[in-house]
Design goal:
The complex is a heterodimer of chains A (304) and B (234). Chain A has 304 residues and is α+β, with helices and mostly antiparallel strands. Chain A folds into 2 domains: 187 residues, no CATH class; 74 residues, Alpha-Beta Plaits (2-Layer Sandwich), CATH 3.30.70.3040. Chain A is built from 10 helices and 4 strands. Chain A is elongated and about 100 Å long. By secondary structure, chain B is of the alpha/beta class. Chain B has a domain of 123 residues: 3-Layer(aba) Sandwich (Rossmann fold). Chain B is built from 8 helices and 10 strands. A 6-stranded mixed β-sheet of chain B has the order 6-7-8-3-9-10, with helices on both faces. In chain B, strands 2-1-4-5 form a 4-stranded antiparallel β-sheet, with helices on one face. In chain B, helix 3 packs across helix 4 and helix 4 packs across helix 5. The chains are: A alpha+beta (304), B alpha/beta (234). Chains A and B meet through helix 7 of A and helix 2 and helix 3 of B.
C-alpha cells in the first residue's frame, strides 16, 4: 500500500507552480479576466432580475388625466366608473400638487432638479393609480379598456408595468444569451490556456516524469502535482477576480447612482448581499476549468 | 525468471513512412540471480530490450514474461507495481541537479510512498554500501562522474529491486572508473538474490568478465550467448 505524505505532494505542486513562472502568471491573468467578465455579466443579469421581480410585484396601472384639473362632479363619476371595472381592487387619486410634492421627497438629495417648478408651473398631471388583481391576461384586458379613448376620453396616457416588464425581460434575455455565448467562449479559452500550461509544465519535466515512471510511480503520483498546480492557478485567479469584482461593481454603482434620475428608478443590489455567490462562482469556475484543462493534457501527454 | 519467446519489436518511422525492426525474433531466458552482459553496437536493439523489460514498450509479436507474468497482458494500473521489481541505472545517471545525493536516493522511495522513518533508515545504509555517504549532502554537479554513477546506482537499489538493469553504466567514465563500476555491478548480483543485466557496447571492458554470461545483439538478433550452462534451454 502506497501512502504519500500530503505535505510532500503539496510542496512539489507549489514548486512546480513557481517553476512555471511566466506561463503561470499568464494563465492566472487570462483566467482572472474570464472570471471578471463572467462576474460582471452575472451581476448585471441578477440586477435586471431583481428589478423585473419588483416590477412584477407592482400590480398598478397609472392613468394620467388630459385636464389640469377635473371638476368635482366629473371626478366622482370617473372614480365610480373605474372602481366598477372588473379586477380593480382600489383606485387612488393623486393631484398635481401631491405629485410635485412626492417628486420633491423622492429627489430630496437633488433639490435643484425641481427648483424651477411650483404650483403655477407644475409639469405633472392628475393621476389615477389603479391597483388590480388577477392574471396577466386580466391586466392586459383592463389596460386595453383604459386605453380606449371612447370609454375613457379623460386619460391622455395610460402606463403599466407590463410594457416596462416586457422591455426589461427582453433586455435580460438578450444579455443572458450574450452572457451564455461569452461564457462558452471564455470557458473554452480558459481550458485551452490551462491545457497549454500543463502541457508546457509536462514538457519541462519530461525527464523527471520518465525517471518516476521507471522507478514505479503511479499515474496518480505523477499527475497530482500538475493537477494541483492547475487548481492553484484557478484558486489564485478566483481570489484576484473577486477583489477586482468588488472594485468594478463599486465603480458601476457609483456610475449609475451619479445619475439622479436613474438612481431613483432602478434598484441596485448591494455587493454585500451577493458576495458569497460571486466568490463561490469564481472558485467553481476556477476549479472546473482547471480540472478539465489539466485532465485533457494529462491524459494526452502522460503515459504510465 | 525473464523469458523472451520469439519477441519482435518494430517501430513505424513517421518521417520516412517505413517500418524499423528493432528486435527480430529474440529468444532469451535469464534465470533469477544471473549476471548477464548484453552487448552490441548502436542500433543493435539493446535499448529496445531494456524498454520492453521495463514495460515502457510492448512486443509487436512474441511473448515476454517476467516471473511468469506476461508483460503484454499486465493491467495498466499494475504496471507501476511491476516496475518496483526493477531498478534502473541510466547511462546519463538522470539525477536531479537541484536535489542532494541523499534527496536523489530518497526520491525513489518517496515515489513508492515509503514512510519518512523508513527513508531515514534505508537511504544512509544504501549510501554507505556504495561508499558515497560522505557525499550525501552534495549536489550532483559537485561530485565526480563515478560518484554520480554510484548515486544513480543507490537510487536504483534503494527499493531493493529483484532485477537491476544498468544501461551503458560506464559510457561517461574513465577506464579505471569504468572497471570499478562494473565490478560493483557484478558484485551486486553475486549473492544470487538479484538478477543484474548490464547493457553496454564496450566489448573491451566486458572481456574482463568472460566467465560471466554475455549476450551479443546485432541488428535486433541474438548472435551469440555465452555461458551455455545457464542458457542451454533458452
Amino acid at each position: 500500500m502506497r501512502r504519500y505524505s500530503f505535505s510532500y505532494l503539496m510542496s512539489r505542486s507549489l514548486k512546480g507552480f513557481s517553476r512555471n513562472g511566466l506561463m503561470s502568471v499568464a494563465s492566472v491573468l487570462i483566467l482572472t479576466s474570464c472570471m471578471l467578465i463572467s462576474g460582471n455579466f452575472g451581476l448585471i443579469i441578477y440586477n435586471l432580475y431583481v428589478n423585473l421581480h419588483s416590477l412584477n410585484e407592482l400590480n398598478e396601472i397609472v392613468c394620467m388625466c388630459s385636464y389640469e384639473k377635473l371638476p368635482d362632479e366629473q371626478y366622482s363619476q370617473l372614480y365610480d366608473r373605474l372602481t366598477a371595472l372588473p379586477h380593480v381592487e382600489s383606485v387612488e387619486y393623486t393631484s398635481r400638487e401631491e405629485a410635485l410634492q412626492r417628486m420633491r421627497e423622492k429627489y430630496a438629495q437633488h433639490p435643484q432638479l425641481l427648483d424651477r417648478f411650483n404650483d403655477e408651473n407644475n409639469p405633472f398631471f392628475e393621476v389615477y393609480t389603479i391597483t388590480y388583481s388577477g392574471s396577466d391576461r386580466d391586466a392586459t384586458n383592463l389596460l386595453f379598456t383604459l386605453k380606449n379613448k371612447n370609454e375613457f376620453p379623460e386619460f391622455r396616457a395610460v402606463s403599466d408595468r407590463i410594457e416596462t416588464a416586457n422591455t426589461l425581460e427582453k433586455l435580460k434575455n438578450t444579455i443572458l444569451w450574450i452572457f451564455g455565448g461569452f461564457m462558452i467562449i471564455l470557458v473554452f479559452i480558459s481550458v485551452v490556456i490551462i491545457m497549454n500550461t500543463v502541457r508546457m509544465a509536462i514538457s519541462a519535466r519530461r525527464e523527471e516524469i520518465e525517471i518516476m515512471r521507471y522507478i514505479g510511480a503511479t499515474g496518480w503520483f505523477i499527475s497530482f502535482p500538475f493537477m494541483m498546480e492547475s487548481f492553484i492557478t484557478g484558486l489564485i485567479s478566483a481570489a484576484i477576480a473577486f477583489v477586482l469584482q468588488i472594485i468594478t461593481y463599486d465603480y458601476m454603482i457609483r456610475l449609475l447612482t451619479s445619475d439622479a434620475a436613474a438612481a431613483g428608478m432602478i434598484t441596485i443590489v448591494p455587493f454585500a448581499q451577493v458576495w458569497y455567490f460571486v466568490l463561490l462562482g469564481f472558485i467553481v469556475l476556477g476549479f472546473v476549468t482547471s480540472y478539465i484543462g489539466a485532465k485533457i493534457s494529462l491524459s494526452k501527454y502522460i503515459k504510465v | 525468471m525473464i523469458e523472451f519467446k520469439h519477441v519482435t519489436k518494430t517501430y513505424r518511422s513517421s518521417t520516412r513512412d517505413t517500418t524499423v525492426i528493432a528486435l527480430n525474433d529474440v529468444n532469451l531466458r535469464i534465470n533469477d540471480g544471473e549476471v548477464v552482459f548484453i552487448v552490441g553496437e548502436n542500433g543493435s536493439g539493446k535499448t529496445t530490450l531494456m524498454r520492453l523489460l521495463t514495460r515502457m514498450e510492448v512486443p509487436t509479436s512474441g511473448t515476454l514474461t517476467v516471473d511468469g507474468q506476461d508483460l503484454k497482458k499486465i493491467r495498466k494500473r499494475k504496471i507501476p507495481d511491476y516496475r518496483c521489481k526493477i531498478g534502473m541505472d541510466f547511462q546519463d545517471y538522470r539525477l536531479f541537479p537541484k536535489f542532494t545525493v541523499y534527496e536523489n536516493v530518497a526520491f525513489a522511495m518517496r515515489v513508492l510512498g515509503k514512510s519518512s522513518k523508513n527513508i531515514k533508515k534505508t537511504v544512509p545504509l544504501v549510501l554507505s554500501m556504495l561508499d558515497i555517504s560522505a557525499r550525501a549532502d552534495h549536489f550532483p554537479p559537485e561530485i565526480s562522474g563515478g560518484e554520480q554513477q554510484r548515486t544513480a546506482l543507490a537510487r536504483a537499489l534503494v527499493n531493493n529491486p529483484k532485477i537491476l538493469i544498468a544501461d551503458e553504466p560506464t559510457a561517461n567514465l574513465s577506464p579505471a572508473m569504468s572497471r570499478e563500476v562494473m565490478d560493483l555491478l557484478v558484485s551486486l548480483g553475486e549473492n544470487g538474490k538479484r538478477t543484474v543485466l548490464v547493457i553496454t557496447h564496450d566489448v573491451k571492458l566486458i572481456s574482463n568478465y568472460a566467465h560471466k554470461r554475455i549476450v551479443k545483439l546485432e541488428r535486433g538478433r541474438i548472435v551469440s550467448d555465452t555461458g551455455a550452462e545457464v542458457s542451454a534451454d533458452a
